[in-house]
Amino acid sequence: MHRAARHSFVLGTMLSAFSMTAMGQAAYPSKPVRVVVGFTPGSATDVTSRIFAQKLSEALGTTVAVENIPGVAGAVGGAKVAKAPPDGYTLYYGANGAMTIAPSLFTNLPIDPSGDFTPVVHLLTMGSILCVNKHLPVKSVQELIALAKRRPGELSYASPGVGVPQHIAGELMKLTAKVDIVHVPYKGAQITDVIGGRVPITLQNMGAILPVVKEGRLRGLAVTSLKRSPMIPELPTMAESGFPAFEALSWFGLFAPAGTPAAIVDRLYQESTKILAQPDTKQRYAELALEVSGADGKRLAEIIKNDTAKWAKVIKDANIPPAQ
Question: What is the C-alpha to C-alpha distance for residues 143 and 236, in angstroms, rounded to an integer?
Fold first, then answer.
């Protein structure tokens, strides 16, 4: 083959390959997309994911189905995504429990949060509320701490499970105040025992507990965000209640398997930020006490790194035993 002809052949092959790649990326998605959630139906993670999935389906012009695969603070679902082909058709709607707390708490975590995924977008944040049974004789965080010091080991607090943000927030409170309060983990936002008085204290995400507090069935003492919530502005923050710089948030992000093409990741990021900017989306999330974020994958990776270090220190300092 002559040199000129050979060069033309090579150039043609490269252009053809480039064209096929571009066509493949431009055609995304060409089939339904699956979004895996690591918690049970009806949980805060599940509810918020379905709002997002419906909007993403409209934006992409294809079915976006939510699949619930619970276990190990959401990490079992994450493991399913980590092993999926990196083609943008299997995504992980991950919460910070699995991505930043579980690595320091679980001995056999089935995922590597920093290596198994490509962060796409930081979607939502939400604080929690520290609540007590309405018959417990306390009306502030300081009164609760004083009671706990008078009755070491006698009080208990409920959380939605081991390794979730509310669990670690409770341990941070105990560590800071130097009190002994027993942790009682449940599977999800089970608050019947708190209302009934069997467990007198609870930390629950705001979306789950807010209606119960507003109805007066539980007494809210403080929110775990740095700022007061516009949904219940009468409640002080933990920082205002004697715990300087106390912050314990739940957050949700969208992740793709490691190695997903940049063009697909960018498409998902662009569509996600458009969704979060829509007034009706903001309103639906606000009603659940959620704030939209929209930070990109690079910023999400930084959040994961910083939060992992923060919670690792709390887990170590509080001597929280490893979980299976």
Answer: 14
Average pLDDT, the chain: 91
CB-based contacts of 160, cutoff 8 Å, min separation 6? 43, 166, 167, 185, 186, 187, 188, 189, 190, 204, 205, 208
Task: State the amino acid at position 9 in one-letter form.
Answer: F
User: Which residue carries 């670690």 as its tokens?
Assistant: 168
- Rounded mean pLDDT, 55-76: 95
* 106-133 confidence digits (pLDDT tens): 988 999 999 999 999 999 999 999 999 9
Q: What b/e sequence results for 266-301 when a residue is b if at least 16 CB atoms lie within 10 Å of its CB, and e otherwise?
A: ebbbebbbebbeeeebeebbeebbbbbbbbbbeebb
Reported confidence tier of residue 178, pLDDT bands at 50, 70, 90: very high
Task: Pick the more confident residue, 18 or 156.
Answer: 156
What is the average pLDDT across 218-239? Answer: 96
For residue 182, give the nearest of 152, 160, 138 by alpha carbon.
152
The span from the first CA to the last CA of the chain, in angstroms, equals 65
Burial class of residue 153 in the structure, from the number of CB atoms within 10 Å of its CB (0-12 exposed, 13-18 middle, 19+ buried): exposed
- Find the mean pLDDT for residues 182-201: 90
Rounded distance between C-alpha atoms, residue 163 and residue 299, angstroms: 23
Of the candidates 86, 65, 49, 24, the residue with the CA atom closest to the CA atom of residue 284: 49
CA 245/CA 18 separation, integer angstroms: 51
Cβ contact 96:187 at 8 Å: no
- Integer Cα distance of 45 and 124 in angstroms: 10
- Within 148-286, strands assigned E span 156-159, 182-185, 201-205, 218-223, 250-257
pLDDT at 26: 56
What are residue 94's DSSP bridge partners? 253
Whole-model pTM: value is 0.85
Amino acid occupying residue 107: T
